[in-house]
Amino acid sequence: MKNIFEINDCPLFSGLKEYEQHLLFDCFYIVEKTFKKGSYIINYGDEIKNVLIIKEGSVCVVEDDYWGNRSIISYLDKNNIFGIAYAYSNNQTYPISLIAMSDCKILFIDIKKIFNPCSKNCYHHTQLMKNAVMILSNKNIALINKIEHMSKRTIKDKVLSYLSNCSKIYKSNHFHIPFNRQELADYLAVDRSALCATLSKLKKAKIIDYHKNNFTIFYQIL
């Protein structure tokens, strides 16, 4: 499984030397799969079996209700991890779906291999589990941020909360967001037309500026 991807950029394998990474690969059963943009990588109700690593491309975690209304839970790009949160869950099946936002290559790792180390209790597997806990913590923070956006009373406040958080992540008042307008509406759980109207008003008021997915926010006004 050598050179399967740029392993040093993946947080799951952080702090491990190359030979330790390859020792882990000898333990894991890793399968690489390719998905086209818009295709389902995981469907609601699929059995929980694997941790997924985004080798190339980007994906979004979505939840569709009975009437077909979609909410985007999170966005994941290259070297991000999906599935760790379900390792010790009581759920036997996924309560969400995973959709390719671009053409993707995904690595599937048997979830039991990650969280059930061998009897030797070797350092590299212990480090891997520590990394998994760190990833879970970061995902929890991201969900807290989303709850903060969603708790705002108006679409304007939701948009500004989201854009403000993006500026903190990128450490700049100019940044690129991963969502188109429909996806951003799904992420913030608002109507697309109302979102577009709000963005237009904010732009006219010179609170923000944007072109497609590139945004600028003006701190002196915020």
What does this structure look like?
- The structure is a single chain.
- 36% of the residues lie in helices and 24% in strands.
- With 222 residues, the protein is α+β, with helices and mostly antiparallel strands.
- The protein folds into 2 domains: 7-145, Sandwich (Jelly Rolls), CATH 2.60.120; 152-217, Arc Repressor Mutant, subunit A (Orthogonal Bundle).
- The longest helix has 28 residues, at 123-150.
- It starts with 17 loop residues before the first helix and ends in a 5-residue tail after the last strand.
What fold name stands as the CATH topology of the largest domain? Jelly Rolls
Please give the share of residues in helix: 25-40%
> In CATH's first tier, which class of the largest domain applies?
Mainly Beta
Pattern of helices and strands: HEEEEEEEEHHHEHHEE
CA(first)-CA(last) distance: 50 Å
**Number of structural domains:** 2
Strand order of the largest sheet: 1-8-3-6
Main pleated sheet: 4 strands, antiparallel
Instruction: Give the rounded overall mean pLDDT.
Output: 88
Instruction: Report the structural category.
Output: alpha+beta
Q: How much of the polypeptide forms β-strand, as a percent range?
A: 15-25%
E-strand count: 11
CATH superfamily of the largest domain: Jelly Rolls
CA gyration radius, whole angstroms? 19 Å
